Amino acid sequence: MDAPAITRRHRPFLAPIWLMALLLMSVLAVALTFYNSANTTTVVLVRPALAAASSIADSPLVPEDEAGARELARLFGDAAGQNGRIEAIYVMPGRRTEQTAAPLAGRLGLAPRLITETDVGDAAANVLSEHRGQVVLVVTTAQSIERWIEVLSGSHIASAGNGANVYVISIPTLGSPGLLLLNY
After folding, report:
1. In the prediction, which pLDDT does 72 show?
2. Which residues touch 112 (CB under 8 Å, ≥6 apart)?
């Protein structure tokens, strides 16, 4: 009589399936984290109207420009709404930029922050790093608005210093920035 054969049950080798599931879960976790961190920062650039001929070096706004500053406050000053609300106001040094921002700052209850960097690139990087995913207003001078637009959007706008314009620059985490021009 023959001795009974030792039989083993063969289990399937499941390591490839477990490794594939682990890899898929890792990819999904990274994608979800990246999706949640993707946002758009919006920078609204304005400048005061051109200074009237004056013997004062840092001349104040003329009455027409004050009306423009009030109109700016009306356009962007919805303190009740949370979507698209301006969350910070930055101003370049100068009486005219501060007076342009004052009505909106008062309406929103925000204190304008003075831009201390002398280089527009450094100032823009500071604004973007401090306010990722938010809406920020920057009141700049006629001499530097073209540089702000170039740094933030990569676009070159000829004669950006003429007229009373508002430049809205959307800077997404993914993709390229968008530029929108509004007249007020």
Report:
1. 83
2. 89, 90, 91, 98, 101, 102, 105, 139
